[in-house]
Write a sequence for this structure.
């Protein structure tokens, strides 16, 4: 293990080794200025953050390869004067089978939209309205 400075034996079950790891990390850490101001939560742009949040919910709720075969595009984004945000995200499906899986009798797409909307409200610290539109191959 020549490429390691230290090796720590830790047990989550017994809670052993944690103190040694903390001590090492604190001694190895370097003081310096923060790379971003404290009010900046991410360096991703708004569009990317919205698309990745929707994609993460698709990964959570859809089986196997399905989420990887979907195209997620931000169609519309509006930063409203009162501070809220509205967005429309298009989910492109290559096959009718994927379309049916994404929609899932209407309940699945509603759940995905609601959870993505809540995650985006938490991320942007404002009211976020999200609409998901599932489209077939003609997209």
């Amino acid at each position: 293990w020549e490429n390691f400075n230290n090796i720590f034996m830790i047990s989550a079950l017994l809670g052993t080794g944690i103190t040694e790891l903390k001590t090492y990390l604190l001694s190895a850490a370097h003081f310096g200025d923060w790379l971003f101001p404290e009010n900046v939560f991410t360096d991703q742009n708004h569009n990317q953050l919205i698309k990745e949040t929707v994609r993460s919910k698709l990964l959570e709720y859809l089986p196997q390869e399905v989420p990887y075969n979907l195209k997620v595009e931000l169609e519309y984004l509006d930063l409203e004067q009162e501070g809220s945000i509205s967005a429309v995200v298009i989910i492109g499906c290559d096959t009718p089978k994927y379309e049916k899986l994404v929609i899932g009798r209407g309940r699945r797409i509603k759940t995905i939209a609601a959870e993505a909307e809540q995650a985006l409200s938490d991320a942007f610290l404002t009211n976020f309205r999200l609409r998901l539109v599932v489209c077939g191959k003609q997209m």
About this structure: The domain at 46-135 is CATH 3.30.300.20 (GMP Synthetase; Chain A, domain 3). The chain has four helices and three strands. The first helix runs from residue 18 to 28. The longest strand covers residues 70-79.
